[in-house]
Amino acid sequence: MALTFAATPRTPQVVAPRPRGKRGRAARRSLTGWAFAGPATLMVVGLSIFPAVWAFFISRTKWNGIAPATDVGWRNYQRIATDPDAIAAAQHTLVLTVLFVPGSILLGILIAVALNQRIRLIGFYRTCIFVPYVASAAATGILASFVFNPQFGAANEALRRLGLPAQQFLESPGQALIVICLIALWGEVGFCAVIYLAALQDIPRELVEAATVDGAGKWRVFRHITLPELRPVTVFTAIWQTITAMQLFDLIYTTTRGGPMNSTQTVVYYIYELAFQTQRLGYGAAVAYLLFAVTMLLTVGVIWYNRRSGSGAF
Amino acid sequence: MRRLPFSPWHLLLMPLALVFVLPLVQMVLTSFMTAQEINQFPPKFIPTSLHVDGYRALLSESHIIRWFANTVLVSAIAVVSHLILCSLAGYGFARLKFAGRGLAFLAVVATVMIPMQLLMIPTYLMFARAGIVDTLAAAFVPWLASAFGIFLMRQFFLSLPVELEEAARLDGCGTLRTFVSVVLPLARPALATLAIFTLLSSWNDLLWPLVAISDDSKFTLQVGLASFQGTRRTEWSQLMAGNVIATMPLIVAFLVAQKRFIATMTFSGLKG
Q1: Model confidence at A8: pLDDT above 80
Q2: Which pLDDT value is given to residue B38?
Q3: pLDDT tens readout for residues A252-275
Q4: Domain total for chain A?
Q5: Which chain A residues contact residue B206 at CB under 8 A?
Q6: Alpha-carbon torsion (A286, A292, A296, A298), positive or negative
Q7: CB A253 within 8 A of CB A183
Q8: DSSP letter at A116?
Q9: Per-residue pLDDT averaged across A34-58, rounded?
Q10: Most buried residue, A198, A206, B224, B250, by most Cβ within 10 Å?
């Protein structure tokens, strides 16, 4: 990959000293092509593949960013397995992902099906449900710490009206992660609903009509026509939302900052703390690489599983 | 129009819609309350009158106007640069033949898999060596172009019929001329999608500017809000006023151009 980066736009010039004849024309074409594609490619590749390679070298050192780095080989990676903070962070990320991904798929489908009905007020409903998606996660986090405030928040007021006891929410080590997951769903479900809605509207009407003529009820049409047709979108949503959940940072930063009692310290939050609060760059990079590897494996795994069980997506 | 009969779907959609929108309504209302009104249980949702103390305190005690201007600048640079660089690159990858095209495009697509958390350590070090940490440049340089933008524009150009460009060529237009005066005018929907996507992501970004900028006069809105929250956990009217200032531009844009926003969300979902 680093070689790709080295193949800068200027290479074709060297190949063709005289822009004449067939080779000259090809070189000129290459030059034009690189003039178009080069700047953006250079930016994107230069700001990701090059740092990614560098991060690997950093991950094999012990380094605080100031004093010279000392090479420690694979020791940073070995340490992760016995680091209680890293294991706890991995568990928190796992819980968050396991709650968030199915939650956003189920809610996404439910909302999309509801918004696909031809009833009054549908435009109003659609606007209301999609609008949180444009609010930043940082602002959402600040707003959520107000709504879920144990003393005077609206969430406890809602519980009181329902005759339920007040909760500590983000201030309780047992509840904070679940509340963060709910807030993340509030912010992200609109996105899932939009793509499910688009997919629902792409389902050929004849399919549904044919099944109805054959005497299938609404539920059976949904179960045997709609759901299979939504499958490619579900594969995408599963991958996308897994990545979102595993990389959730902004919301945690503006609600609990990893607390109470580290109960919401996820892997990405831990990486941030290691690298930018405690200046342990080498170890932080190693944890980040492990996260990258797990994300890759999960993505490839989902695609592979989906291919094997025969669906058109990817 | 015939009145549609009452549908049971309302029983699901109405509460859902309220759950999604009421917190935002409460955010706006709370920004106009006094501390006394806020700190009581059961909570009140409607302020007794429009108190602007929260806004006034926020304006005088933080650099919120600076943060707003910084964010507008960073987002504007990001959007303009995305529109230029990504449409050029998308066109290059879609239509022009050049040595190394396949490999270069593969490299661009591969970068999508790399998480920000992995890149932020070396990128921070790179920017520190370039001397741009703690400047606004640090906030916008990563947003000059993106793999998603290149991919989006390439897909769009691939979907255009090639005949128009061939006709322009026969009329003697060069590649750049053809691109600017024939292809780009057709690309307006894709460019709008790209602009909205870039605006949303650069405006709302927290993690990277949080890492790269520590001078509070150079904060973006998101970093500013987060740091302001860190020092004033209980000044809710000020915090909500800050939230309103940070989110309203995008919310208003969404309400005005809802169709284009939804098209953007759909595209990033189905093709992204």
Answers
A1: no
A2: 86
A3: 999 999 889 889 999 999 999 999
A4: 2
A5: 136-138, 249-250, 253-254
A6: positive
A7: no
A8: T
A9: 94
A10: B224
**Residues 152-171 in A contacting B (C-alpha not used; CB under 8 Å):** 152-154, 156-157, 160
Domain that holds residue A9: 1-44
Residues of chain A with C-beta less than 8 angstroms from the C-beta of B43: 152-154, 157
Kindly state whether residue B9 falls inside one of the protein's structural domains: no
Q: Which residues of chain B have pLDDT under 50?
A: 272
**CB nearest to A236's CB, from B243, B258, B269:** B269
Q: Give the bridge partners for A61, in sequence order.
A: A71
Rounded to an integer, what distance in angstroms lies between the CA atom of residue A44 and that of residue B245?
Answer: 31
pLDDT 10s digits, A118-136: 888 999 999 999 999 999 9
Contact across the interface for A7 and B103, Cβ inside 8 Å: yes
Contact call for B9 and A52, based on CB within 8 A: no
Domain membership flag for residue A247: yes
| A187 at interface of B, judged by CB pairs closer than 8 A | no
Report d(CA B183, CA B8) in Å as an integer. 48
Tens of pLDDT, residues B184-215: 999 999 999 999 999 999 999 999 999 999 99
Burial of A155 (0-12, 13-18, 19+ CB in 10 A): buried
Q: How high is the ipTM of this complex?
A: 0.91
A305 Cβ under 8 Å from any chain B Cβ: no
Residue B189 lies in a domain: yes
Q: Is residue A253 domain-resident?
A: yes
- Nearest Cβ partner for B258 among A12, A127, A254: A127
- A1 touches B: beta carbon within 8 Å: yes
